[in-house]
Amino acid sequence: MSSIDYSEKIPNNVNLSEDRTLQRALEHWQPNYLQWWNDMGPDGSQNFDVYLRTAISVDPQGWAQFGHVKMPDYRWGIFLNPGEQDRKIHFGDHKGEAVWQDVPGEYRANLRRIIVTQGDTEPASVEQQRHLGLTCPSQYDLRNLFQVNVEEGRHLWAMVYLLHRYFGRDGREEAEALLERNSGNADNPRILQAFNEKTPDWLSFFMFTYFTDRDGKFQLCALAESSFDPLARTTKFMLTEEAHHMFVGESGISRVIQRTVNAMNELKTDDVTKLRAAGVIDLPTIQRYINFHYSVTIDLFGADESSNAATFYSTGLKGRYEEGKRVDDHLLKGQTYKVLNVVGDKLVEKEVPMLNALNEVLRDDYITDSRAGVERWNRVIEKAGISVKLTVPHKAFHRNIGALSGAKIAPDGRVVSEQEWSKRVNEWLPSDEDRAYVGSLMGRVVEPGKFANWIAPPVMGVNRQPVDFEYVRFN
Ligand SMILES: [Fe+2]
Ligand SMILES: [Fe+2]
Known about the structure:
The chain is built from twelve helices and five strands. It has helices spanning 20-40, 108-128, 139-166, 168-180, 202-223, 229-267, 272-277, 283-298, 307-314, 358-383, 418-428, 432-441; strands spanning 49-54, 65-70, 336-343, 346-353, 472-473. It has a single domain, classed as Ribonucleotide Reductase, subunit A (Orthogonal Bundle), CATH 1.10.620. The strands form two sheets. The chain has a three-stranded antiparallel beta sheet with strand order 2-1-5. The chain has a two-stranded antiparallel ribbon with strand order 3-4. The protein is mainly alpha-helical and 475 residues long. The protein binds fe (ii) ion (2 copies). One fe (ii) ion is lined by residues 152, 213, 216, 242, 245. The site of one fe (ii) ion has 5 residues, from helix 3.
């Protein structure tokens, strides 16, 4: 079951060849996907040989094989984690029943919506990142960007397989639409707002992979609990790939910080003008990028009170993060959770039914996880003997969804006046000037082992290769 058949047009471990209709439908979608990859995938890079890892099996030891391939030849396919014998639904109203191998009619619309929303983010991020290869800080980073891109493409395949296999004609139409919407397109945008924002520079890319791919992790973890077993098994395999994306973000930011603190020590200054003259990214700018990406990303969890969230949980479609490790009744009826509201000039907590607050529960789990990486960045600063600390802003800061939407809250959680907000917003969020400065640093460095001035080299190369390995062969 877990070995992947690569002799097939579509590599898979789901015995695709035994279902001719499905196989034909997916083989019909495949050229449209490749066309989309050509039009909207990495700009001007289709002919490069890139040192990529490809899944060869879903076993813990054997799923990553490294070698140089041209991205359009990457073996995108359909890989599910092996099924668990006698798996039981372990939360919600159906708790204790057998998991579903098919979609129950009454949950069809909701499940389709969940899968389409998840699926839409995958190609969206490829589109958002498509120009970054032109300004890569090194070959190592270029290769990592492309690795993330091809895997997001595979995640699209994962969701498209479910749509084709379990949702009939509606599913096929949704699969087409996933290739038709485009990030930032005024007429046909991607579903979620954060996936219509630009990823204009590499600092944004690292922030995106640290913060926004981590949202992906939490959504996938919640879906990995699903009573719809094929969804659970698909998302479990996606999570193994997602870990690398967050690594790219965390280590990327860490290397930017390393370079900056080195320059601060060499020049014995924390003066932003001097540091910018030296061509590094000052810590206040890094803090503002954190504030932006963090706040935009926590909006992705949705409204703090949501009857949909309650329905998705009670009907067993979407669990909590690490549902299986929690010790409660996994029904949550009659329990409460605290959400925030603005009352006058104060943030106040309000107790609401926990089932309705499950978006907030997932957001809070995400927040804990995000903070841990920021602390690791702080250790880089601390080691350099510099007393600055980076933080994530208060969760009410710069929100655009739910009860806090549009409220004027400072990063420290104070409710502020319109005047104070407009006076200080450039201290809190990246200004046009910050973005222009970061943009001005983005040149293309592709000589093996060379790195742009604003970022330190990584500690190690990819797959134990040296840092100056030829990760990308330009043809
Ligand atoms: Fe993904
Ligand atoms: Fe990702």
